[in-house]
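Async update (no meeting this week)

Hi team, since we skipped the sync, here's where things stand on the single-chain job. The sequence we agreed to prioritize is pasted below, unchanged from the tracker. I ran it this morning and attached the output directly underneath so nobody has to dig for it. Comments welcome in thread, and please keep replies under the output.
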Amino acid sequence: MNWSSRLRAQITLEAPDGARFTAFWQGDEVELPKQIAQFNLPLFDGTIVQDLGSRGLAIPLTLYFEGDDHDREALAFLRALKQRGSWTVSHPVYGGFSLQPISARLAVEPVSSANLTKVESSWIEPAAADLAASTAELGAQISVQVDAVNQIAASQFETALDLSDPEGAAAAMEAGTRCLSQIKAGKLQALIKRATDLQATFTSYYEQAQAAFTSTPMDVLNAAGQSQAILLLPALVSGDLTAKTAALGDFAERILDTLIPSSDVSARNGAAVGEMFLSGALSGAAASVATSVPETREQAVQAVYDLGALLRSITAGLDAMQSASAGNAAAEQYFSQGGTFAALARLIGLAAAYLLRLIFDLKVAKRFTLDRPRAPIEITISEYGDLGPSDSYLDLFIASNHLRSDEIILLQAGREVVVYV
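Output:
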């Protein structure tokens, strides 16, 4: 068989350790996998799609090793693929670029091709190393994505509202003022009150949101913008990230409890208002991550869990309402996040990546039980080395162990305490 008529020029592959291999190459098909969010709505013909970008180029390479030691060289190449990291490839058509090996299969064919060993391999083109985002860059990406989510949610809110019917318009107004009242009823306002410099800003946003919801006709985009601005205020409050996500989670649960599954125009408007506030709560939680640095790994891991739990809780609540409304026309009763959901999922993913990037620089929780009565100040000096700048280590010990009253002076034997080292 005349292999030279089937093979192209040689291809050179350099392993992460610098070992080089040369082989003949037979043409293969390059594939570009896209990331597409697909939404299939009940009783709705067609699929709603959202383009989420592309993955790396998928590049299969069929290689042929030739010569007296072709079988040994091919096996050495296969073993070299065990190395971690990307390879540098000099391709006869595409030139030089970096590829990450995925899999390879060696085929020895002594009867049909005694002078060749065939290796079928799969590769993917990784993102360039200089494109890997730093912690600061991830924080900036979160801020950009927060703005994108809020714009998409506001646009969806404007589209979903039906203000042509007087009863529907009244329902939207009532839902807006009710959702705003939940900010003051739960943990959210208590959290914002911690920052005295935010009180005037909070009052301004709140009054403008109320005015926008109660105006005739309703100032829809301003109502959404001012409401979203309120839910971003926790990101400006210094303190525990867990408290911020808990406050926004409490607010989200209160909003979910007010939603009514129905195809009635009034109920649909109420659901649209609720959805806008729920999206804002998730944006606020992600924004809080970008402006807060957890003190311990435990807090960072808990924040990752809390963000995912908040997204799942909101999605489950909206899906449950959709299921309860089954039987009506999809265009009239489907309340899910739709296109906003994909943007929110990306936002929560960015926030989780940011926290995981921080995690290795954070302290680890160390728990132990006291075998004798000990003073918190003595434990702090023993475990942290000193009391810290302005007694910060002592303050951390008192706060992380929830010490009250006489416990600040002396802890009894048998008490479990935690320090961060």
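Quick observations from my side:
Residues 322 and 334 are 6 Å apart (CA to CA).
The chain has a mean pLDDT of 83.
Reply here if anything looks off.
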